[in-house]
Amino acid sequence: MPAAEATPCDLRQGAQTISARGRRGAWQEALSLFQHLSACRAAPDLVCWNCAISACARVGAWRRSGQALSQLRGARLRADVVSYSGGITACEAHWLRALHLLRSGAEAALESDVVMRNGALRSCALAKIEGISGQTETWRWAVLLLGNSANTVSFNSAASACEKCSAWRVALRFAGSGRQDVITCNAPWASERRGGDVAVQAGVLCAF
Prior knowledge:
This is Pentatricopeptide repeat-containing protein, chloroplastic. The protein is an all-alpha fold. The protein has helices at 3-6, 11-23, 27-39, 46-58, 62-74, 81-90, 95-107, 114-126, 132-145, 152-164, 168-175, 182-191, 196-205.
């Protein structure tokens, strides 16, 4: 359906349509509709921008999401937690980019919420890095990102980052955090499968 038919020059309905396209994974359609809204001389508000950023985030289109975030700032709108959360989520395994956005949010005087931190944690867990030094850096960052608002998702991502780098002792600590689930508990086993004592400790700590 042509963008002109799909999106009237109305901010509220436009935002709803962009969001619907994003949920379907049709991020290119979502961006096309967003551009159509701009052409209607109805300057997109923050909600519309966030819907466009989130549409990109759902499919990991991190470059386009980052471009939208930069353009948002150029449109004299103040990005909020939702804006940065979408940008960070889009980063997937691009963990340095995710950390950069997290820091940018802090510099913009935004208090990072658990969604922003979990997005950065997930990027650390998904990072594909060769070499011990780079791997060590990702799991250390994952540990640093855990805050008072950390939840089970946070601990799972941190444990996964440690598991990939064979940091089983740290992963074991997460398994006994009291906020663990099966994924958290499996991390020490995956990290050091041949460590019999470690496996026993993990089993005891993860007994529900």
